[in-house]
Design a protein that fits this description.
The complex is a heterodimer. Chain A has helices at about 1-20, 70-80, and strands spanning about 20-35, 40-50, 55-65, 90-100, 105-120, 120-135, 135-145, 165-175. By secondary structure, chain A is of the alpha+beta class. Chain A has one domain: Lipocalin (Beta Barrel), CATH 2.40.128. The mean pLDDT of chain A is about 90. Chain B is mainly beta. Chain B has one domain: Porin (Beta Barrel), CATH 2.40.160.40. Chain B is built from three helices and 14 strands. Chain B has helices at about 1-20, 25-35, 265-270; strands spanning about 40-45, 65-75, 90-100, 105-110, 115-125, 130, 140-145, 165-175, 180-190, 205-215, 220-230, 240-250, 250-260, 285-295. In chain B, the strands form two sheets. Chain B has a twelve-stranded antiparallel beta barrel with strand order 2-3-4-5-7-8-9-10-11-12-13-14. In chain B, strands 1-6 form a two-stranded antiparallel ribbon. Classes of the chains: A alpha+beta, B mainly beta.
Amino acid sequence: MKYPALLLFCVILSMACQAQRFVTRDAQISFLSETPLEDIQAESTESSVIFDMATGQLAFQVPILSFHFPKALMEEHFNENYMESERFPKASFRGVVEGLDPSKEGEQLVTANGALEMHGVSQDRSVAGTMVRDGDWWILETQFEVACVDHQIDIPKVVSENIAEIIEVTVRAELKLK
Amino acid sequence: MRSLNKGVLLGWAFGLLASMGNGSALAQDDLMDFFGEDDQPTVVTSAFKAGRIINVQSPETSGEGEMNFIIAHRFGRLSDGWYDLFGLDNAQMRMGLDYGITDRIQLGVARSTFGKTLEGNLKWRFLEQMKGGGSPVSLTGYSVAMRDGLRLPDDGIVRKGVHRMSYVHQLVVTRKWSPEFSLALIPSLVHRNLVDQPDRPNDVSTMGVGFRYKLNRRMSVNGEYHYLLPRPIEDGLHNSLSLGLDIETGGHVFQLHVTNSRGMFERAFLAETPGRWQDGDLYFGFNINRVFQVRETH
C-alpha cells in the first residue's frame, strides 16, 4: 500500500514540475567570424533548449552538423578541420538563469551562469541576455563571444587572416510551455 | 520485474528527496531526457578529401554551386633516370572542371593530353552513409564518356566518329569506419567501341579497392588498387596500384602520388595499364584541386 501512494505523490509532483517547463527544438543560433579579408557566417535552426522556470535551470543543445554556410567548402572545413563534428557532435550550455522575475511582463535583462561546452572543452561562462514572457512563451535572446582558443579550436597560420579568433554568436529561442 | 520496479521507485524517492533538498537533481535528469529524444540519424560526410582517391572517383562531389578545377600532372617513368630527370621532363596533363548541381549530383568535363582525350562525366551520390540508423555505406554512381582525339592512322581501315568513343560505369561503395579511416569498393565496367588490337575484348571489368587514412586534420595517406577480372586472352596489361598523400591548405587540396598508370581518365588507368611496379614502371604525379563557389546557396 505504501508504494502506490508514493508513486501517486511522485506523479503529481512531477506534473507540477512539468508545468514549469518551457522548451523548443528549433532555436536559431548563428555566428559570425569577421576579418578584413572575409566574413564567414553560418546558421542553425535545430538547437534544443529547455528552461525550468521553477529552478531557473536553462540548457541548450546544439548539433554542430546543423550549421549551414553559404559555401559548401566552408561547411566541410568547419566540420572537418575546426569543430571535428564527428568526435564532438554537439555543443551545449547548462546553467541557471539569474535576475528573472517570472511574474513580470515585458523584456527583462537576465544573466545565465553555467558551463559552455564545445569541441569537447567546457568553459564556465556568465552570459547576459534578455527574456520576454508572452503568455505560454518565453522569448530568449542573447549575443556573446567565443574565443576559439578557449575551446582548443586551432586556426592554422595560413588561414589566420580569414578566420577571426573571436567568434560572435547570436541566439534566439522561442520556448513554449510544455 | 518486481525488484526492478522497487528499484525504480526507490530511485524516484531519492530523486524526490534530492529535488526537495536543492531543487536540481531531478530536474537535471529530465533535462537530459528531453535532449535524448532529438537524436536523429545524421549523414556521415567527408569520407575522402577530394573528388578522387588518387586516380579513381571517391564518393565526394562538388557541393551545390561549387566549381572544382582540377589540374593533374603525371610525369614520365621514374626508371628513366637522370636523362629525363626521373620522368619530370615528360609531363602528361589532365584539366577538369566539376560542377555541383546539387550537393550530391556533379557534372564534369575534362581534357587529357594522354590520347588527346576529351571526357564528359556524371557523378551521383544517391545514398548517404548514416550514423544512428540508416545505411552503413554510401553509394555513388559514376559514368564517363571518353572521346579519343588522336589523328587517325592512314592504314586503310575506315573508322567513324563513334569508334573514338569509350565508356566507363562504376559504383563506389564507401564506408567511413572512423573519422580517420575510410574504405571504398569500386567495381567498374569499361566499354570500348573500338579496340586497338583484334584480340582485345571490347568490355573489361575491374574490381577496385581504395582507402584513406588521415594522419592529421590536413593530411592523409591514400591508396587504390584495381584488379582486372579475367579476360579471354593474355594481353600484357596489368592491375593499377597507386599510393599517395593528400595535403589540404584552405581552398586547395594537393594530391601527390606514385602509380603504375599513366593515363588519368578511367579507361586508361583501369583497363590499359601496361607497366608494373616491380619493373620500375612508376610515375610520379600530382593533382591540384581548387574550389570556386560560383553560385551561393543557403
